[in-house]
Design brief:
Blueprint (H helix, E strand, L loop, with lengths): L1 E5 L4 H13 L3 E3 L14 H8 L3 E11 L7 E13 L5 E13 L2 H31 L16 H12 L15
Length: about 180
């Protein structure tokens, strides 16, 4: 299962979520592989399709400050996550969690709230993705990979070894395409 994670303004939470999902053996596409201009607003689903990922994962955070807080700034962070299948846009996983955070510094209060819900978010999304992906795709499906501007067969074989070794693919065939 290859996932593209839309990191938006929640980079610390997104990094933690990425690490937890990778621990659960999910393969995530690096945000740096995003095609096009950085300023182009695109949904996680569109970007997942553009980079060939199976799933687009959207992550949003809202902060509701507590106006009654006397000593420390505080409030409630609400995190919403949606994992959408790239092929048909259907929802594979949905999660919504809230946590309170307080500190003299507003940014630290937000960070504490997000830190409190990180483990729940990652575990919940991982479980939903694993179960629902297996239910919707009961068998293996082939993935085609095209390499362009390759100068030698050594580079092609390095990609093949990575697929078979690091990514644990069951097979990797090399086909020569004639121009």
């Amino acid at each position: 299962l290859l996932i593209y994670l839309s990191e938006a303004e929640v980079s610390d939470l997104a990094r933690a979520l990425r690490a937890k999902l990778e621990e659960q053996q999910f393969v995530l596409v690096e945000a740096d592989l995003r095609p096009g201009e950085e300023s182009e607003p695109r949904s996680a689903l569109e970007l997942a399709r553009a980079v060939g990922a199976d799933v687009g994962l959207e992550l949003d955070v809202d902060w509701r400050p507590n106006p009654e807080a006397q000593v420390a700034a505080g409030g409630v962070a609400e995190v919403r996550a949606r994992a959408l299948r790239a092929d048909d846009g259907s929802e594979l996983a949905i999660a919504r969690f809230e946590a309170a955070g307080y500190d003299v510094d507003r940014d630290e209060a937000i960070a504490r709230a997000l830190l409190a819900l990180e483990p729940q978010l990652a575990a919940n999304l991982g479980l939903q993705l694993e179960r629902n992906w297996q239910a919707e795709t009961p068998g293996e499906r082939p993935v085609e990979l095209e390499l362009e501007a390759v100068s030698s067969l050594v580079q092609v074989n390095a990609v093949r070894r990575t697929l078979l070794g690091t990514l644990a693919a069951k097979s990797a065939e090399i086909r020569t395409l004639e121009a």
